[in-house]
UniProtKB/TrEMBL annotation:
Organism: Candidatus Scalindua brodae
InterPro entries per record: FkbM_Methyltransferase, FkbM_mtfrase, SAM-dependent_MTases_sf
Name of protein: Methyltransferase FkbM domain-containing protein
Alphabetized GO MF terms: O-methyltransferase activity
UniProt-listed NCBIfam families: fkbM_fam (TIGR01444)
Span of domain Methyltransferase FkbM: 17-188
């Protein structure tokens, strides 16, 4: 049997992490044997830390101290008291002062730097065929996408991006702007993990709904048009793995049928993909159990009512990750 998954050992998923502070995140941290990672972190101190943490076997990871925007410009990196709030934009203190712990957005240092576009950086470094992009840059995400047009139109299948519903930074684009741009480029919103904040004029332990401030959005390409005919076999495998990795087995099955229809996959390929995307009944029982626990929690604390000052929806993908990791390891390494 020709093992379709062994191709991922030679041609791995290429993941670009823009705003790479804190390093690799879920769910990618579990799949180092099938991904190559290129990270961009404009804070040089943080970038050095990230590169220093790379173990010898982690040759698939490389972090670059480059600030991305829509082109070459002079800019100022505003480093804040809480480094994760640092941005090329200034914090919007008029809004932030309404919420607890706003001091974490206080600017403690300013660094002058030059920006570039993702299109240019990838071309200069001869990096091609990006599969997935994560962008979390505290307000400049839309500018980065606008400087990535060539990459988005040709290669990228999935995008994870932090989006805001309120201007945490001065003049930053909001979710509607980012969503419009990505939809115009053939991407569809699949998930949105919303984060709520309560204003400081109410005790932290007093139940209140809280305002939606920002979210973690997940997009997949759904509009292939005539380009579907030019998708390679390996690229098709990567798309399905990425969908499954995020818990979207249904979309993975849809893509499997689509690629079989256009002769990108043969019958043997299709069968192997179906084997990977098959969820065993025991896992369904575990998922029902988890959903029941979540339901009971919502009975005791109705959805949207929080007792802290910040809360989020949370993603329910953990149950899928271990199963997928075990199956991928077996299929790639054992050939079974």
């Amino acid at each position: 049997m020709n093992n379709i998954f062994k191709e991922l050992k030679k041609d791995k998923i290429l993941y670009v992490d823009v705003g790479a502070r804190w390093g690799i995140t879920e769910p990618w941290v579990h799949f180092g044997d099938i991904i190559n990672i290129i990270g961009f972190e404009p804070d040089e101190t943080e970038c050095k830390k990230l590169n220093a943490q790379i173990r010898e076997k982690d040759v698939f990871i490389k972090y670059l101290p480059i600030a991305l925007l829509d082109g070459k410009k002079d800019a100022t990196l505003n480093i804040t008291k809480s480094p994760g709030c640092s941005s090329l934009l200034k914090p919007n203190t008029k809004l932030l002062n309404q919420f607890p712990d706003f001091e974490r957005f206080n600017i403690v240092k300013k660094t002058q730097l030059s920006t570039n576009s993702l299109n240019s950086v990838l071309e200069e470094n001869r990096i091609r065929d990006i599969d997935f992009i994560k962008v979390d840059t505290q307000g400049t995400e839309l500018k980065i996408f606008q400087g990535s047009g060539q990459v988005l139109s040709k290669d990228v299948f999935g995008i994870a991006v932090e989006v805001e519903f309120a201007q945490l930074y001065e003049d930053q684009p909001l979710f509607a702007d980012v969503d419009k741009y990505l939809r115009e480029n053939g991407f569809t919103l699949f998930d949105l993990n919303r984060h709520r904040w309560k204003r400081e004029n109410i005790p932290a332990n007093m139940p209140a709904r809280g305002q939606i401030i920002f979210g973690d959005a997940l997009y997949f390409r759904t509009d292939f048009g005539e380009d579907v005919k030019s998708i390679s076999r390996t690229k098709g495998i990567k798309m399905i793995i990425i969908a499954a990795l995020h818990g979207y087995y249904d979309y993975g099955r849809h893509l499997n049928e689509l690629f079989f229809k256009y002769d990108i996959f043969n019958q043997e390929d299709k069968n192997q993909i179906e084997q990977l995307l098959c969820i065993k009944p025991v896992n369904q029982i575990r998922r029902v159990s988890r959903l029941f626990k979540k339901f009971m929690a919502n009975v005791l604390r109705p959805k949207g009512i929080q007792v802290g000052w910040a809360d989020s929806d949370g993603f329910e993908i953990g149950i899928y990750i271990n199963d997928l990791r075990i199956k991928m390891s077996k299929l790639i390494n054992d050939g079974s």
